[in-house]
Structure formats: C-alpha cells, structure tokens
Write a structure and sequence with these properties.
Layout (H helix, E strand, L loop, with lengths): L1 H18 L14 E4 L3 E4 L3 E4 L6 H9 L28 H11 L7 H11 L1 H5 L3 E2 L5 E2 L5 E2 L12 H4 L10 H8 L4 E6 L2 H12 L5 H19 L4 H6 L16 H12 L4 E5 H6 L1 H11 L7 H8 L15 H22 L10
Helix pairs in contact: 3-4, 9-15, 11-15
Length: 357
C-alpha cells in the first residue's frame, strides 16, 4: 500500500505540473509543437531532443543542426527533464538564462514546468512568430523549430528513486516514458560512440590532472560496483541507480547504450529515434548529416552551405588524447562486450559491436 501511495503521489505531482498545461493537440500551422494558453499566450516545447551521454559528440552535432536556417538557436543544455525537474539548481552553463528564468517564476526552484516554458517563451518563441511562410488559403505557417540537447534527459531519473520505491525491481518510469506521454511525436536523436573510447575521453575530461594508474583503479572500482549491483538487481535497475562511485553524470555506466536506447525506442518506436554513431559522423559526414536533416524533416541545404556545415571545426573536442594502459583498455572492452552485443541485436546492425577494427 505504501509503495502504491508513493507512486500515486509522484504521478499526481507530475500530472499537475505538466499534463494539465500541455494540450493533447498542438497548433496545426506551427511546425514546432506550440499551443495557446488563455487564448493569447503562445507556449512551445522543443521539436527535437538530442540525447546520449557525455563525450559522444552532442555539442558538435548540435552546432551542425543549428547551422540550418530553419532551426532557432536556444540554450543547448537546460537539463530540465532530467536533473532540474528533480531539484537540481546548479548553473555550470547558461547561468544568465537560468537566473533570468528564476526571476520570471519568482524563486530558485528550477523544477517548475513554468521555468522550462519561460525559457523558450523568452528565447525561442519570439523568433518562431517573427518568421512565417504562406500556406494554403493564405494561412501563415510558422516553419521554424528549436530543440533541447541535454544529455541527462536520456538517463537521469532522480538520485532517490530507489529510496522512494525501495521494492521496485526496476525504475517505475523513465524520462522516455514521461516525454512520450507529453510529446508523442517528438523527434529523438541518440548520439553514441565506442563506449571504451567514450570512457577514456570522459576520464580525461573530468580528471585533467589524472594519471593512467588512477584511471585503471577507477575503472576496476566502477566495474566492481556495477557487478555487485547485478548480483542483486537486473541491469535496468543498476544502470539508472546512482550509487557506489556513480554520480549524476556517470563515467562508466554511460556506455551501457542498449539499456537506455531500448527504453527510448520502446517509448517512441524505432522510427521515432535516430541513433547516430560519432564514428559515422566522422567517416561519412555528408551521408550522416543528410540522414539527420531528413529525420528532422528540414530542407536540404545547398552544397556550399552543407560543406560549410559538415566541415566546420569540431566543437567541444577533448584535447587530452586517448591515453590508456593496455590492461585498462582490455578491461573496458571486455566489460562492454555483452552490452555492445545487445546494442547490435537491438539495432540489427553489427557496426555496434565495438571495438571497431
């Protein structure tokens, strides 16, 4: 009874904040999901979401998408669906915008759905309504869109869900299910790369004064922690739980792609989630970029503009290199092997059988 009571309280809280404010249908003459509140107040949610995990190229692909003239430049990582909705109030990025939204909502609580809506009412919506094309019967059509590229959306469901639901064998719900309930037609772009290479990049990105031996010990510790968890719980429980050496932005478990990808694909269908490997963006940039543009239902750019976009300098590149002890690399490759196999089966594509040879 206690478990059901906690669950009902959680759903009621979410419903009050989100579902009562978002309609079942959006305005038909807006490409971006927009609606009117109180007959005149235009609200909009992101048209697309770039998710994944750290050091998978989300910053670079975000910049490439923004180069399209029909995509509006809004703050890249509001992190609302993940940590902010659950109480996070840090301002490592977009400090100016975060503080401005708090001023509009009258407090320091970023978890308010109004905080998220105000962000786009202040930045994205004005540009949407100032750009129209004429549709059938002379009705103006608002063709510009914006997105949200918060990697935390893919896996951050709250640090205390295991305490709220102590008997739950797996997460009660995920952000994929929540977002699907609010925006069933949202376009999801999931970025990933070789999980071992990602783990290496993540380590040096967060430990700029680290060393190879420390990296090895940390990998051993995190793998041991996850394996201890798996002695008691299924992989979905362990992948979403924040315990042991894990934190809000996980180092090792961020490479358990099949766990998170399966939840998003089950929520939005295979056609609703575009999975992009960073390796493909690097080796086949034009083909991969066009795939993204087609998925987002945007017009193809001229060859000149497309070249400027796909060959632009990469964003947020880790300059620390790929230093790793051979034994650490083998440890990580062996650890990720079954999850890579699971990802290949999920996608029905052997190119996810990392490491790439």
């Amino acid at each position: 009874m206690e478990k059901k009571s906690n669950y009902d309280a959680l759903i009621n809280m979410i419903s009050k904040q989100i579902f009562e404010k978002v309609p079942l249908h959006f305005l038909g003459n807006f490409k971006n999901p927009c609606w009117l509140r109180n007959t005149t107040e235009l609200n909009c949610l992101p048209y697309f979401y770039v998710i994944g995990t750290s050091k998978c190229g989300t910053t670079d692909i975000w910049a490439k998408i923004l180069s399209h003239p029909d995509v509006i430049n809004v703050p890249k990582e509001p992190h609302w669906w993940g940590p902010r909705r659950l109480g996070y109030t840090g301002t490592p990025i977009h400090r100016k915008e975060v503080l401005a939204m708090r001023k509009l909502t009258g407090g320091e609580d970023d978890s308010s759905f109004e905080w998220y809506l105000n962000l786009y009412k202040s930045i994205g919506v004005p540009e949407i309504i100032s750009n129209t094309v004429t549709a059938a019967k002379g009705i103006p059509y608002y063709h510009k869109v914006f997105g949200d590229a918060s990697i935390s959306t893919s896996y951050t469901i709250g640090l205390d869900w295991t305490k709220i639901f102590p008997n739950a064998p797996e997460p009660v719900y995920t952000n994929a299910q929540l977002l699907r309930a609010v925006q069933p037609n949202a376009k999801i772009i999931l970025m990933l790369r070789d999980p071992t290479v990602r783990a290496i990049s993540y380590y040096w990105y967060t430990h700029q004064r680290g060393n190879l031996e420390d990296f090895h010990h940390l990998a051993v510790k995190q793998i041991g922690c996850l394996r201890d968890c798996l002695q008691k719980h299924p992989i979905r429980y362990c992948a979403y739980a924040a315990a042991c050496p894990y934190s809000v932005f996980p180092g090792l478990k961020g490479g358990l792609y099949s766990v998170f990808a399966r939840d998003w694909i089950e929520a939005f269908s295979r056609d609703g989630v575009l999975v992009i490997r960073l390796e493909d963006l690097e080796t086949s940039p034009r083909f991969t970029y066009r795939k993204i543009i087609k998925f987002l239902d945007l017009e193809q750019l001229s060859e000149k503009k497309e070249n400027e976009t796909i060959y632009a300098p990469k964003k947020n590149v880790n300059r620390m290199g790929k230093r790793i002890l051979p034994e650490t690399k083998k440890l990580l490759d062996d650890f990720y092997a079954p999850y890579n196999k699971d990802m290949a089966l999920l996608m029905e594509d052997d190119k996810f059988l990392y490491p790439v040879t």
